[in-house]
Amino acid sequence: MPDVWWWGAWAAVVLLLVVLYVSWLAGRVGRLHRRAEAATAALDAALVRRAAAAALLADELAPAAPAPAAGLSAAARAAIEAAPDGREAAENDLTGALRRLPPRGPDPVPAWAGVVTASRRLGLARQVHTDVVRDALAVRRRVPVRLLGLARRHPAPSYFDVGDPVLDEAADPHRPTVPTRPDQATRA
After folding, report:
1. Nearest to 121 by CA among 48, 71, 177, 171
2. Rounded Cα distance, 70 and 66, in Å
3. Helices (H) and strands (E) in the chain, counts
4. pLDDT > 90? residue 24
5. What is the tens place of the pLDDT at every residue in 90-130?
6. C-alpha distance from residue 21 to each of 98, 144, 168 (Å)
7. CA angle at residue 50 from 45 to 51, to 5 degrees?
8. pTM of the full predicted structure?
9. Backbone phi, then psi, for 107, in 5-degree steps?
């Protein structure tokens, strides 16, 4: 009889460990999907900020370069008003419009620094979003998650592919320069 008791105790311990593991795994799946939703919201906010900065830049460029400003304004408006299924294409159109802007002179318009900053923040938000989506999709592919259906309640996150415009960083007065020689000073 004592042998049966030990087997029962071991089975209870193993069952408890399995339940704890499944509970931990379900929590991890939920956390990763909540992080993916938060990263999507942060990416959306960064996209809106960049589109708004681009619209402001288009307004400032209109007197000097009406044709590129009109294209940039239309692309920014389309990016702001885009439906979720057409958002990626609208944002890539905005990136193309930013790339097609004429070269700036020695005194760039003030709104250019806002576009540079918004584009940098967009790049960071996109990278965070990509990393979180990769992690969420990786945990969804794990065998225990698929067998137990732990990801059923959460929609599968998706990547957002938007091109990064190549912008001149010299327009941002708050960005310190990196010296190429030790005797060069950086601006504060």
Report:
1. 48
2. 6
3. 5, 0
4. yes
5. 999 999 999 888 776 656 677 888 898 999 999 999 999 99
6. 49, 10, 50
7. 95
8. 0.78
9. -120, 85
What digits encode the pLDDT tens for the residues 120-147? 999 999 999 999 999 999 999 999 999 9
Which residue has tokens 């938000």?
125
Whether 129 and 160 have beta carbons less than 8 Å apart is answered as yes
Q: Which residue has the tokens 């400003």?
A: 69
d(CA 150, CA 143): 10
CB 164, CB 98: distance < 8 Å:
no
What is the torsion angle, in degrees rounded to the nearest 10, for the CA atoms of residue 99, residue 104, residue 107 and residue 111? Answer: -30
Helices (H), 62-108: 66-81, 87-99
